[in-house]
Amino acid sequence: MQNTANAAGTDGPELVDTAPLVEDLYPALAELREAGPVHRIAGTDGRPAWLVTRYEDVRRLFADPRLALDKRHAAPGNFSGFSLPPALDANLLNMDPPDHTRVRRLVVKAFTPGRVEKLREPVRRVAEELLDAIEPDGRADLLAAYAGQLPIIVICDLLGVPQRDRRDFRAWSDALITPDPARPRAAKEAVGSMLRFYTELIAKKRAEPADDLLSDLIRVRDDEAGDGGGDGSGDGRLSEDELTSLAFLILLAGYENTVHLIANSVLTLLDHPAALQELREDPSGIAAAFDELARYEGPASLGIRRFPLEDIEIGGVTIPAGETVLLSMASAHRDPAHFKDPDEFNPHLGRSGHLALGHGIHYCLGAPLARMEMETALAALLRRFPGLRLDVPRERLGWRPTIRARGLISLPVAW
């Protein structure tokens, strides 16, 4: 992999070309990992960033309190990222303790394993209905018709989003996660649409509360405000911007990662027919295979960007305070220093410690829900369609053109 000229004009090593990370991810990461633990690249916003590639470093840094998520700790001119309005930007992906602790505590009870398990049967029914709709056709784009539908239905039901308001969500999500260079205004338009959507939804829930998570969060917010708080400044408080941002994050994260976790797992099994047949014959093995599926082809290549609060050393490289650090889970998961035969998919090896759902205080809030949805989606699919196969040559499948996420553009299958 070649270095490129430092087009950003900042001091430091030349930037590593990130095009191979889009075109051929794992071989490109292997080359970087072998060359060194940290590399200077053009980040997701086009500005210089430090990419960490080796498992032990990535795992340790996920839990290192010297790395902040709050963008206010970025050095001037170092980071741009998404241009979100305050009503969407006050979310957990831009928070450090104590604000992160306070806001997370208000919603974590909705995603405990016990509460999520109660949703398994409703999720199974949704999966069966989606498969009923496509079964007569004998073929479908499984990403659009199944993997892309199930998570949005589940998370919208959990939050209490009306059926009629769900149709544009995937387009908004795609515009934010994988911006189209040919439509430079699409991401900004999606942000505006989402802000109007959440503002109107919260107003409706205030007027007509229901038995759903968003109504519960509104009650928490309004009860605190009625006691003279609710500005987010004290322990247990929730500001209006934090309320809107929390709804935004739950819906976006609950949709985006789970879609690609399901689709990537299906592709992995189609690529490994012996494992697919084994799980079809014994669906109880799907739960045990989850960790290996998430490690082998997880939905996120990078963790959320971080900013050192002080100069820190990573793998012998000193990174100045305020510069952008990107932790590569995709590279960590293929690190032979930690995982035996990491480029092989083998659910029987019992390889633990994947980072697909994060690590430390920012571990994925919805991890139990994502796990349950993936297990349920795979079990239903393998049982219903025993002849499941790719409907196009394997080499024609394309991945989304971003270094941030690992997701298919489509997954044409037949049965």
From TrEMBL:
Cite the Pfam families for this sequence. p450 (PF00067)
Entry-linked PANTHER family: CYTOCHROME P450 YJIB-RELATED, P450, PUTATIVE (EUROFUNG)-RELATED
Cited PROSITE patterns:
EF_HAND_1
Q: Per the similarity annotation, which family is this?
A: Belongs to the cytochrome P450 family.
Name of the molecule in the record: Cytochrome P450
Superkingdom is Bacteria
InterPro entries assigned to the protein according to its UniProt record, in alphabetical order: Cyt_P450, Cyt_P450_B, Cyt_P450_sf, EF_Hand_1_Ca_BS
**Lineage of origin:** Bacteria, Bacillati, Actinomycetota, Actinomycetes, Kitasatosporales
